[in-house]
Amino acid sequence: MDKIWIHAEVNGDKPATITLELATKARSLGGTVEAFAEAGNAEMLAGALGEYGVSKVYSVDIGDSLAGPAIASAMAAQIESGNAPGLVMFGSTYDGRDVLARLSVKLDRPVLTNNIDVAEDGGTVKCTTQIFGGQTVVETAFKSEAPHLANFRPKSFAAEPGNSTTAAVESVDAPEKGKVRLVERHVEERSGPVLDEAPIVVSGGRGLGSAEKYSMIEDLAKALKGAPGASRAIVDAGWVPYSYQVGQTGKVVKPNLYIAAGISGATQHMVGMKGSKNIIAINKDPEAPIFGIADLGIVGDVHKVLPALLEALKGK
Amino acid sequence: KQIPDPANPGALDPSTNFLKRDGKLILDESDAYGVEMALQLADKAGGGEVTLVSMAPNSETSGLRTALAMGAAKAILVSDDTLAGSDALGTAKVLAAAIKRVEGADLIIAATEASDGYTGTVPEQIAALLDLPSITFAKHIEVADGKVKVQRQTEAGYDEVEADLPVLVTVTAGVVEPRYPSFKGIMAAKSKPLDEVKVADLGVDAGAVGIAGARQEIVTVTAAPERQAGEVVEDDGTGHEKIVAYLEKLKVI
Ligand SMILES: Cc1cc2nc3c(=O)[nH]c(=O)nc-3n(C[C@H](O)[C@H](O)[C@H](O)COP(=O)(O)OP(=O)(O)OC[C@H]3O[C@@H](n4cnc5c(N)ncnc54)[C@H](O)[C@@H]3O)c2cc1C
Ligand SMILES: Nc1ncnc2c1ncn2[C@@H]1O[C@H](COP(=O)(O)O)[C@@H](O)[C@H]1O
What we know:
Mean pLDDT of chain B: 94
Distance between the termini of chain B: 48 Å
Oligomer: heterodimer
Number of strands of chain A: 17
Number of strands of chain B: 12
Bound molecules: flavin-adenine dinucleotide, adenosine monophosphate
Structural class of chain B: alpha/beta
Strand order of the largest sheet of chain B: 5-9-6-7-8
Largest sheet of chain B: 5 strands, mixed
Number of helices of chain A: 8
């Protein structure tokens, strides 16, 4: 492919990890890699993304609205004027999906979503996705005309710098602005490492019995300098916020160590964590599916094993 | 959306590679939140009604009946053999055309993603086709003075956003507690209007939907590599020591 575009996003004052992952993958497919970003982030991203092989960052003024309509219209305007890529890559993120969906309608192109890989094979672009909770891998080819539109799950690609340049910034017009007004941003206080970037993740599930017992998970995460996570069962029950959820509809994590306590191991949970290097599971049911992928499985009661473990770690 | 019961393992039809959708369909749990949200908002507004719009094969209505039993007033179902193999954009074109038949809709609610296909793009594509503002990932919705105020989930927390009606909003799981249909509701649902329409009735270009409109082809389907199970031990009071030993081996303590 001669040219690939990525939708570039930020996390605080840094590029989002997914953006670095997309840039790395795009670079490996050969050709030019360019990014589209909100105007407020473009300079910072240009500084950071050059190293990852991005040669230009298109800066789009989205006004006081959401990213979707403005960035999609800026991309479409470039394409109509003859500046068209072979592929546009998005993260399966909040804003990434909005831009992707709006662009697909503007260009009347299909989308392939939740991918974990992409390849070009004799002029055909193919995306790989996992279905049925990660048990089946499906490869789908675009039969439409380029530009092809696809989004990717976080952690599908490693993020590796490969150049030592800075990208140029080019301001481009967004013919359409979103009609949603952004009134205020709320940033929730967080302490400790972020769930999807932590080297150790300790997750709890319904087997904890009650919301109060989740403190054992937080204590263990703290003792190991990791991040606490959760199954959807206890997120839906309101014990912890959605941002803690690991799995198909939550975060994808690939830590060095994942500890699952009182989690059965539903396929939708496992698809979010089975890429972990090491897995320890604690469950009172010897038949729990989570033991099928655990490196160390303890058949036991979380109310006994976790307190004993926390006590033992105090001396370490 | 009406989907196969997620409690049963999904399967692909080996001849077409489409998701198997035979057998009874149920109301997607993800949409139960949207139905409940719509009912509560209509209630708070002191009037107004909730219309369901769905696309599903084989004139399937059991999921719609569940939502009617919860309290929705009526339903439009698009069911047509030519829709088999539709992708997200094709589905959005059909649903957008069906939504146009609902006169004076102020608010269109969908889930952030469906439980079976989960492309997560259909609602925003519908909004784009109808040229409406859209707010995805809502965790709280208020309607007043011709405006919607939404708390939209973000990576760092949430954004407070607002837009003038009409607008499309997608809701996340758990935003409200979906009610169980009452016996009275179930009985009432049986006589509520349910309008079934075909692609031709909607004025949608038949070439833009179904497998032809999808413009994509599944080329391979393979089993994912399995991860090997390790050691599983019964806790005899020393389970935590096994964990400590493992943590030491990993040098994380
Ligand atoms: C479309 C869809 C998407 C989904 N997405 C996700 C997702 O992103 N993430 C996710 O996690 N789930 C997801 N789910 C839900 C998933 O199917 C499971 O329902 C959920 O993961 C179960 O959570 P759990 O393991 O905590 O609860 P359960 O399945 O109820 O398991 C509890 C476990 O705790 C054990 N236990 C009980 N008491 C004790 C004790 N005292 N000590 C030790 N063990 C004990 C039990 O043996 C059991 O194995 C999704 C489902 C659908 C349909
Ligand atoms: N066939 C359908 N009928 C009704 N609603 C649908 C249909 N497909 C998608 N939707 C709505 O759009 C949401 C997101 O779908 P998806 O983009 O497929 O993940 C669903 O949860 C539904 O609210």
